[in-house]
Amino acid sequence: MDEQAKKTALRMIPYGIYVMTAKTADGGVAAATVNWVTQTAFAPPLIAVGVKADSGTYAAVKASKQFVLNVLGKGQQGPAFAFFKPAQLENGKLSGEPFHPASNGAPILDNAPAALECKVAEIVALGDHHVVVAEVTNAHLHREPTGRPDEAVLEMKDLGPKVFYGG
């Protein structure tokens, strides 16, 4: 296989940017920027999220079987970059972002336009990222998008010309 062609072709897949949060076994919180997300079913509402298998967020999701997928909106590059690093809980904020607990205990970022509370249905453990299939148990809309909802989402291309994931 031509490695450069593979990398370029895989990078042509468009990605939204999200922050996945979960409560840890010791009562703390974990969070990470994720971008491999898709809806997989309408009834029940299911999503699939690719999560780095050696991350703290993956460990928390695997243990708790619950998480929140916070949808970042246009202009929210700051939070996207903040959660590329391990989350820090300081002064009641998570990596500088105000939040409140969802009914499942995971953090909902107050400034995210939308958030989905999820319950893990299955984990497909293949490769360096595992696919978490989860049922959406609650949805929060913090601000109504103008125009198409999918155009309100922060996308990988919005993070700059040299920021890629995958390939």
From TrEMBL:
Q: Does the keyword Oxidoreductase apply?
A: yes
Thylakoid recorded as keyword: no
Q: Which keywords does this Swiss-Prot/TrEMBL entry list? A: Oxidoreductase
Q: Which residues form the Flavin reductase like domain?
A: 10-152
- The positions making up the signal sequence are none
Q: InterPro entries per the record?
A: Flavin_Rdtase-like_dom, NADH-dep_flavin_reductase, Split_barrel_FMN-bd
- Pfam families linked: Flavin_Reduct
Single Gene Ontology MF annotation:
riboflavin reductase (NADPH) activity
What is stated as this protein's family in its record? Belongs to the non-flavoprotein flavin reductase family.
- Please identify the protein, giving its name as recorded: Flavin reductase
In which organism is this protein found?
Hypericibacter adhaerens
